[in-house]
Automatic annotation (TrEMBL):
Residues 35-382 form the Aminotransferase class I/classII large domain. It comes from the Bacteria. It holds the Pfam family Aminotran_1_2. It comes from Suipraeoptans intestinalis. PANTHER family: ASPARTATE AMINOTRANSFERASE YHDR-RELATED (PTHR42691). This is Aminotransferase. Its EC number is 2.6.1.-. Belongs to the class-I pyridoxal-phosphate-dependent aminotransferase family. Its cofactor is pyridoxal 5'-phosphate. InterPro entries: Aminotransferase_I/II_large, NHTrfase_class1_PyrdxlP-BS, PyrdxlP-dep_Trfase, PyrdxlP-dep_Trfase_major, PyrdxlP-dep_Trfase_small. Keywords: Aminotransferase, Transferase. One of its GO terms (molecular function) is pyridoxal phosphate binding.
Length: 395
């Protein structure tokens, strides 16, 4: 009875979620502490104390009918103004509240912007490996997701292939840095070259190609790594941001889109995004969360926690003979599978109660993703299990 395209979606249903469910099943049998579940990017660092304090004070101070009422579809003006000022102070931009649209997390923001931009049959280009849900989000609006193959040496974008794949049908390019699943931060030189290519191709095709930068991991970087702010490199850039990871609030569903004035037809696009927020059924981003994040724009998660996890897991696995690029951001390791079919490797790992997600879920077979937003103990206890797993493959 269900729609044909939903049948397909259900059949391809998220490999990540499937692993998460498997984790719960194994935990029921062996106990949670004996399952090494690296499947889901659910932050385990608690939200900063300031978030709780902000929640209490918002509830105390704000008039309930306003606080819990509908807002304009774009969100509370004063919240958007606060975010615009914060971005301007950080990046030297000149945004106003008009450029900010509050969204239901990054996922909500991406759906809003794709709904606003895509005509059926138009293309969105992305670089493999990429967040598994991108294909569904693009398909939601009749768009076609075209992927550029991965450079498995560095996991930086392959720009020659990118240039060759741009066409007059390309409406948008969707990138994610720091990247899920590799943890790689796209370098400034790559961003500059990407921008040059886009400028050139826009002229050649006489079209507008929007660059959508999906940035839920912007602040999750190690060792002072800089993440270029893309609106400064390419005028037709739209940024999608989320507090899911930066403040550990994934269940609260709060983020925003930035649509700068420099973007082609920005006024129309801003209006379209507000309408899309409404008609996709979000109506507006959660009001309590809007007020809370506006009071917490300077807050950061405890990055040192993830950094220790990264170092211990990376050092432990590479010593055992596994290979992977050392991530500069986010909280994922993308490890080369010792056998070509990484699903076989994931199945074997389950025997040691280690759960990982096959790279094919991210458009990059032959690799597995480990989300290290877990307790430090989980990592320490998992390493002897990885040693046993390594013995099956690497000796
Ligand atoms: N984009 C990327 C790259 C992600 O990794 C995620 C979540 O893991 C999302 C978007 C969705 O995030 P949100 O919870 O803000 O909707």
């Amino acid at each position: 009875m269900i729609a044909e395209n939903m049948k397909q979606m259900v059949a391809n249903s998220s490999a990540i979620r499937a692993m998460f469910e498997e984790g719960n099943r194994l935990a029921g049998i062996y106990g949670k502490e004996n399952v090494y579940d690296f499947s889901l990017g659910n932050p385990n660092v608690p939200a900063p104390e300031a978030v709780k304090a902000a929640a209490f004070s918002v509830l105390e101070e704000e008039e309930p009918t306003v606080l819990h009422g509908y807002t304009t579809n774009s969100g509370y003006p004063e919240v958007r103004e606060r975010i615009a000022c914060h971005l301007n102070a950080q990046f030297g931009t000149a945004f106003t509240k008009e450029n900010i649209i509050m969204t239901v997390g990054a996922a909500g923001g991406l759906n809003v912007i794709l709904k606003s931009l895509l005509n059926p049959g138009e293309e969105v280009l992305t670089f493999a490996p990429y967040f598994a849900e991108y294909r569904a989000y693009v398909n939601n609006y009749g768009g076609i997701l075209t992927e550029v193959s991965p450079d498995t040496e560095t996991f930086q974008p392959k720009l020659e292939e990118f240039e060759a794949k741009l066409s007059p049908r390309t409406k948008a390019v969707l990138i994610n840095t720091p990247n899920n699943p590799t943890g790689v931060v796209y370098s400034e030189s790559v961003i500059k070259r990407l921008a040059e290519i886009l400028e050139r191709k826009q002229k050649e095709f006489s079209t507008t190609i929007y660059l959508i930068s999906d940035e839920p991991y912007r602040e999750l970087v190690y060792g002072g790594t800089q993440v270029p702010y893309l609106t400064k490199y390419y005028a037709n850039t739209i940024v999608g941001y989320s507090y899911s990871k930066s403040l550990s609030l994934p269940g609260e569903r709060i983020g925003y889109l930035v649509i700068p004035d420099e973007v082609k037809d920005s006024r129309e696009l801003i209006m379209a995004a507000a309408v899309a927020t409404r008609i996709l059924g979000f109506v507006n981003a959660p009001t309590l969360q809007q007020k809370i994040v506006a009071r917490c724009v300077e807050e950061r998660t405890d990055i040192s926690y993830y950094e220790r996890n990264r170092n211990t897991l990376y050092d432990g696995l590479t010593k055992l003979g596994f290979s992977c690029v050392k991530p500069e951001g986010a909280f994922y390791l993308f490890v080369k599978s010792p056998v070509p079919d990484e699903k076989v490797f994931c199945e074997t790992a389950k025997q040691y109660r280690i759960l990982m997600v096959p790279g094919s879920a991210f458009g990059c077979g032959g690799y597995v993703r480990l989300a290290y937003c877990v307790s430090y103990e989980t990592i320490c206890n998992a390493l002897p299990q990885f040693e046993k797993l390594a013995k099956e493959y690497l000796t």
